[in-house]
Amino acid sequence: MRYRPMSARSAPVLVLTFLSLLQPAQMVKHDNFKTCSQSGFCKRNRALADRAQAAGASWIAPYELDEKTLELRDGVLTGKIWKTEAGGIELPLQVSLLENGVARVTIDEAQRRSGDIILRHDSKARKERYNEAEKWALVGGHKYQKTATMETKEGVTTIAYGPNNYEARITHKPFSVQFLNKGEVYVVFNDRNLMNVEHWRPKIEKVEGEEPTEDEETYWEETFGGNTDSKPRGPESVALDITFPGYDHVYGIPEHATSLSLRETRGGEGNYNEPYRLYNSDVFEYETDSPMTLYGSIPFMQAQKKGSTVGVFWLSAAETWVDVIKTKQNPHALTTEKASTQTHWISESGLLDVFVLPGPDATWVYRQYGELTGFTTLPALFSIAYHQCRWNYISQDDVKDVDRKFDKFDIPYDVIWLDIEYTDGKKYFTWDPLTFNNPESMQKTLAKRDRKLVAIIDPHIKNDGNYAVNKEMVEKGFGVKDKGAEKVYEGWCWPGSSHWVDCFNPAAVDWWKSLFKFDKFIGSTPNLWIWNDMNEPSVFNGPETTMPKDNIHHGNWEHRDVHNINGMSFHNATYEGLKVRLGNGKERRPFVLTRSFFAGSQRSAAMWTGDNQADWPHLQQAFPMLLANGIAGFPFAGADVGGFFGNPSKELLTRWYQAGAFYPFFRGHAHIDAKRREPYLAGEPYVSIIRDAIRLRYSLLPAWYTAFHRASWEGMPILRPHFVMFPEDEAGFAIDDQFFLGDTGLLAKPVVKESATETTVYFPDKQVYYDYFDFTTYRRKGHHQVPATLEKIPLFMRGGHIIPRKDRPRRSSGLMKYDPYTLVIPLSSEGVAGGVLYVDDGETYAHQSGAYIHRAFMFNIGDNTLRSGNLHPDPAKAVAYNKDMRSVRVERMIIVGVGKEWATKKEVEVKQGSKTWKAKIVYTEGKEGKANTAVVKDPKVSITKDWSVSFA
């Protein structure tokens, strides 16, 4: 949601005047956001890197590990690093070795006596480095490598740990760490000696006429865009270079509108000149192909080379910049190896706290990362169906009319959304008394078709003494404070003058949760869910359109310390409020959408890529961004279908729906000044093509939900890049415009270019691939030209998989609950296939007590038999749920790629329990390059039981 003047009914003239200056332009205003050279700590650390490069081998970093202080106990190494500048600064070191092979390196700064502490007397900020990011980002339960051993020899300490021969080799002077797996170096800390911990120091007032040095100019105060950041603690940035020897591709560190395989950032043809920035910001009409910061930050990066994936997680909630460069050789390789990737991480404050994830492949890295930050929550089924939104549906009658027209045009949808105009004067937890005077009736109308309502609630609270929420928040001290910590911070957002709830305060969180109770949020029902926007936080008159860094949060931490976690703290509180509003024992899985996010946000929210534009470049950009989010542990991600700003052509809108059908979060959305573009308004043939795309999503919901289930316990992305599925195929490492859907073997390449009638698809192996719709067969590895006319989605089935789907069109996903299944079985070149189906009630937490169905399907050419087997580890816990689902059957099986001998088959034998019966089978010979198929009609087998179908 973006800038627009408020109506006179809801804002004073002063606010209108101010916000009129914030009208949309045609592109991002770069002058509103810092470059590295305009950010003091980034400029200083990048300059240090330049000096180090110029000095070459003569460069010596001033960091030495004190060998006498080293101690290894129960998998944790402790010691002291000395920064030899400024008379010697003590930096406590801790290296923690987790059972799963992950290593954590933490470097703090020792507390000093009060006489040495350098904070100004008027500061209310904490007099220590921020050390609470782990409370928000990490989950507990980690065990350590208690059998780890340590050996020190000739200035190098080697720690051996784990069953896979992991090692950490720590060089004492200058300090550096190599991480090895089976003797091979895969990550190096401080390889280029760019480590930097800006130690605390006293502010020395300059005598009259004496000019500060270039560095000192931004030590204690920094001005940008007319805003001055007082820095009461002075400079305290941390930086470290991290090298991936032999790894030519690195991915991750969302959110950026760039390619999946990250580009270099130190200039050169095709490269960027700026580092990737992680500083959650409300970036208006962001541009594509840019390292600029966006709304969310996940400081997780993974590196890929043939047959190997490793990762690093940089745990800092402060503003962070990351440089990426490639080298032509690997000095750490035992043999000749390809280029290495060198990265340089720079954060404004906090600890130097880095996790190394050894893999050895992507599956292991995602599990290791999920064990650190938590796996994505298993969402309610309705939330992965189609959502309809715009800024704004103007009244409850408008909502009912849209609902009715979706039915008239036979287009399914599950959720309709309300933007800020539904409120009474931008006061959240209220309804406009003229246009939404009976919100319960609107929600009841939606519930008749098992549909939901989502309403927006943002963290800015209207500064109105008569507004109960604001009054209570201020009186209880639950708002973010200004830099003096004496009063609640006041800024400007949609309501005009606003305060911001401080969700770092546990008491404020409890209060916020209580606001979602039905007796507090009058007019809400159990059918209402929540959208948290503007939670970076967006502050219209703040520096870089966000909150001043010297504001004070609960615990007396400065905003600079917690900025990138702010959005997560807010959507976590909203999630908990929705979870408990029904009372104990009645919890339903909440749905919360957030714009701002951090590592760990996947535990409680979905995200979208913010305020994109209705143009082809933004359609093209969406998939690399969603893939990056998925591999960074946050797969429940989407982009506004159709583009938020502007008016898409009918072709663009149609192609966007075809692409959006493959977004994990699938929502159409538009700006208030955009023309209405509900799918049924497009006219023919576009309406029919869009309807087919949305119905495709609904038919494949069983496959999508099964993929979400695996992500919820193992961390595998929903959309999988080629390097995840084929880690030996280097030709696919940079591909980010096609992908695989979960474990289905479905390979999708939605068309994202104008006027296309064909496109190029890359098949990464020699396995047979079938067109999903007409069964055209492809058997050659490499690039293929395939048809891609407007009505065509390039979608392919890799042979050897079994895809569960539901083929009966319904108005919403909830109405599909007891519908029968179709199994699509594209046989491999060897004549085999396998697949998985996961089913639960889709809304409660009963699955956590075992109330679910988890089945494996396997077709074996050896005896021409398809079997269903139970994957549930404790079937007794599923008895009641199986009873409820006992009528749900498989009504059709489509076997693709059968031989001509199948033409003689007329019946198949079905066995389920002690019973045996026959079912009809119909063979169709493929023409003009299409595969032969055989269809079993209504075998009547249950999805709750073991069974077999014999084609012998």
TrEMBL record:
<dbReference type="InterPro" id="IPR025887">
    <property type="entry name" value="Glyco_hydro_31_N_dom"/>
</dbReference>
<keyword id="KW-0732">Signal</keyword>
<feature type="domain" description="Glycoside hydrolase family 31 TIM barrel">
    <location>
        <begin position="377"/>
        <end position="707"/>
    </location>
</feature>
<keyword id="KW-0325">Glycoprotein</keyword>
<dbReference type="InterPro" id="IPR048395">
    <property type="entry name" value="Glyco_hydro_31_C"/>
</dbReference>
<feature type="domain" description="Glycoside hydrolase family 31 N-terminal">
    <location>
        <begin position="92"/>
        <end position="323"/>
    </location>
</feature>
<keyword id="KW-0378">Hydrolase</keyword>
<dbReference type="Pfam" id="PF13802">
    <property type="entry name" value="Gal_mutarotas_2"/>
</dbReference>
<dbReference type="GO" id="GO:0017177">
    <property type="term" value="C:glucosidase II complex"/>
</dbReference>
<feature type="domain" description="Glycosyl hydrolase family 31 C-terminal">
    <location>
        <begin position="715"/>
        <end position="803"/>
    </location>
</feature>
<dbReference type="InterPro" id="IPR017853">
    <property type="entry name" value="GH"/>
</dbReference>
<dbReference type="InterPro" id="IPR000322">
    <property type="entry name" value="Glyco_hydro_31_TIM"/>
</dbReference>
<keyword id="KW-0326">Glycosidase</keyword>
<dbReference type="Pfam" id="PF21365">
    <property type="entry name" value="Glyco_hydro_31_3rd"/>
</dbReference>
<comment type="similarity">
    <text>Belongs to the glycosyl hydrolase 31 family.</text>
</comment>
<dbReference type="GO" id="GO:0030246">
    <property type="term" value="F:carbohydrate binding"/>
</dbReference>
<dbReference type="InterPro" id="IPR011013">
    <property type="entry name" value="Gal_mutarotase_sf_dom"/>
</dbReference>
<dbReference type="Pfam" id="PF01055">
    <property type="entry name" value="Glyco_hydro_31_2nd"/>
</dbReference>
<protein>
    <recommendedName>
        <fullName>alpha-glucosidase</fullName>
        <ecNumber>3.2.1.20</ecNumber>
    </recommendedName>
</protein>
<feature type="signal peptide">
    <location>
        <begin position="1"/>
        <end position="27"/>
    </location>
</feature>
<comment type="pathway">
    <text>Glycan metabolism; N-glycan metabolism.</text>
</comment>
<dbReference type="GO" id="GO:0004558">
    <property type="term" value="F:alpha-1,4-glucosidase activity"/>
</dbReference>
<keyword id="KW-0256">Endoplasmic reticulum</keyword>
<dbReference type="GO" id="GO:0005975">
    <property type="term" value="P:carbohydrate metabolic process"/>
</dbReference>
<dbReference type="GO" id="GO:0006491">
    <property type="term" value="P:N-glycan processing"/>
</dbReference>
<dbReference type="InterPro" id="IPR013780">
    <property type="entry name" value="Glyco_hydro_b"/>
</dbReference>
